[in-house]
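Local shape tokens

___
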Amino acid sequence: MIIDAHVHIGKSARLQISADGEFLVRVADDLGFDKICCTDLTALFYDMHEGNRLLYEEMRRYPDRIVGYASLHSTRFESEALENLTRCYEVYGMKGLKIYSTPEASIAEPWTIPILEKCVEFDMPVLAHTTPAECEYLMTRVPQCKVMMAHAGGQPFAFGDWNRAIMMAQRFENLYLDTTSSTLDAGFVEKAVAVLGADKIVFGTDTPLLDPYMQRTKIAETRISKEERELIMGGNIRRLMGIAA
């Protein structure tokens, strides 16, 4: 089973994109993906209540294809954020959490800790748009939380430093690396597998922000074993999110 663990659904004027479930499932069909794990852009950047509700509607429309991440556009809503996360888990059936971080609004702060603790209670992994340094802050305080570092450091805020991301994932048992990246650095996947093992790496495309065909090729053509590739391209996220066949 091939699962794309990093997909965006909905509209964003900021990012100038629009993608509904029909479009994303059609792309997944073309790529040979069995399931896609989606974050709603409205929830991520504007309104967590409305955005997560919109994602739930798409999950109901494509129950065998779309797996939902609850999203919080700020962890500083405290009890309101916890209530929304609980609704997403108990009512909407979402299986993970996506949180976004920037230098101006970093999630490496006390507000985030109760959110991570709630994810431990629900056994929900967190896809976090973070730097290695932010992951160190989070994992030191809630080491039981399963955190996937989006882009594995290969994003501007982290200065593209995937070597530091690999070193950070060595330190924390529950810190995983997500393969999406707007750059294709030679040797990244091979080194991550060699140092961490394939079971610590999760495949994603960042569709529609990034080209999913390039992201798939980055893993499919990598010099690793078939068994390692199968873990990265579906086995690991299926285990972390408890996704049924």
